[in-house]
Each structure stands twice: as structure tokens, then as C-alpha cells.
Amino acid sequence: MSSTGSRLSVKRDQQVTRIGFIDRNILDESNIQAIGEEIGSLIDAEPEPRMLISFENVDHLSSAALGTLITINNKVRNRGGQLRLADIDPQIYEVFVITKLNKLFEIHETSEDAFKSFS
Amino acid sequence: MSGQPEESAAVELVNDRTAIDSVEARLLAAVDRFGYSQASRFAIRLATEEALMNAFNHGHKGLPATTPVRLEFTVSPRRVVVVVEDRGAGFDPGAVADPTCDENLECPTGRGLMLMRAYATEVRHNATGNRVELVYERPDGGG
Interface pTM (ipTM) of the complex? Predict the structure, then answer.
């Protein structure tokens, strides 16, 4: 199910790249790798990437998905960009809290809040 | 509900998403039949998923990709027990670094065991470290 097509929805809005997930479950390792590579390419395409990743409709994610988000965060930061996460279901947000990744990522309740936060 | 018999299964799984989804669906269907909450369902699925991924990615590192992992589960009104056993050399769970330490926070790996411990009531490894037993006690007691 992962071999064809993008697992992301991508929309350019002013200087911000808005990213959403097509799948409700971000568990499949080959999908997670493909997602990381695709977002990596989007980051590489921008001089100072402003990435907004929405988790709307995402029901489950694994530690492998968290690892990919960390790699994305490092990549954005290395390029002098900004990353925002938004629309995270409370159960999934708890995973970020347990792993203390809520301290690493800038997380907003809604995409619009996150969008407004870009400097 | 207390009169319901427990439901159990034991399967050999290779690292194939369709096969993993299929056995997780069986597990979660049993969890649903016993009336566990949505939060319990989320916890059981997450802990099971992490145990399986640890087995395939770490336990079976260096082994042929077709090497199967054994998964057993038992669902009863009061608890869910999931056992994942790989065919690797095992590991020392006490030697796994804490991924929440500041110096490890940006490391992309090493959170699977922590999530199992956070979401299961008990996580037990055998002496070799190639078999993990996840025990999830129903928060409201069930029955």
C-alpha cells in the first residue's frame, strides 16, 4: 500500500508549506521513510523553510514516526527554518508528553494558530 | 462480562505490514468485544506495535528478513497479555538509555521500550531479552 504515490497532502500558503497526512495510522516503516524523504525534499527546496505539519485525522503513530519528526526538525533548524506541529489528537499529544518531545517541538492546538506563529 | 471466556491466539509473523495489521485487528477486535475503552485500545495497540517493531528492527538485526517473530495474546475481562518473542540474541533492557534525557532528546531512535513501559501496566523480559510480555490491566477492573 506504500509503494505508489505520496502519503502527504502539501499546500503552499504564502511562505509556509502546509503538510498533512493521508493515512490515519502512521505506523508502516516504509511509509514513514517515504514521508521523511518527501518532507526532506520540501525542506531542501526552500532557502529558509517554514513547515507546518498538521496531524488532523491521524489516529496512531509509532516511535519510528517520532524519530522521523526529529530528523525533520533537525533538518529545518540546520537550514535556519521553522517547524510547527498542529491539530494533534489528545491521545497522540500524550505520546509527545511522555517522550518529552513536546519540549522539542513547537506544537499548536490548531493549524491556524501555528500559521500565525511564524515570524 | 465476567462470564465471557478469554480469547487468545498465537501466530508467527514476518515483517509485513498487511500481516501485522491483520493480527493487530484480531487483537483489537477481541479488546472491543470485552468492552475496553478507547484509551485502553490505544494503549494496547501502541505497546504491541512497539514490541513488534523492536523485535523486527533490533532483535532480528542481521537475521534474514523472513525470520518470523512469535506473537501471542490473551484477552480477558480484566487484562490483556501480549507476548512477543524474536529469534535474535536478545538485549539488556536495563542498558537502554533514557530517551527523555536532554542529551538524548534529539536522537531519532530509542523510544519503543519507553512507550511500552508507559502504556502497559507491566513489561517483563526474559533473561535473554528476546521475549517481552506486556500486561495491560483494565483500569476500571472489568468483570
Answer: 0.91
- SS3 call for A88: coil
CB B32 within 8 A of CB B44: no
Tell me whether residues B108 and A68 touch, CB distance under 8 A. Answer: yes
Cβ contact, residue pair B17, A28, below 8 Å: yes
On chain A, the residues whose CB falls within 8 A of the CB of B57 are 29
Q: Which residue of A has its CA nearest to B108?
A: A67
Query: Long-range contacts: A9-12, Cβ < 8 Å, 24+?
Result: A10/A42
Do B45 and A60 lie within an 8 Å CB cutoff?
yes
Q: Contact at 8 Å (CB) between A88 and A53? A: no
**Domains delineated in chain B:** 7-137 (3.30.565.10)
Residues A70-92 have pLDDT tens digits of: 999 999 999 999 999 999 999 99
Nearest Cβ partner of A67 from B38, B45, B109? B109
Domains of chain A: 8-117 (3.30.750.24)
Cross-chain Cβ contact A64/B17 below 8 Å? no
A89-118 confidence digits (pLDDT tens): 999 999 999 999 999 999 999 999 999 999
Is pLDDT at A7 greater than 80 in this prediction? yes
CB-based contacts of B123, cutoff 8 Å, min separation 6: B47, B113, B116, B117, B132, B133, B134, B135
Q: Which residue has the higher pLDDT, B122 or A5?
A: B122
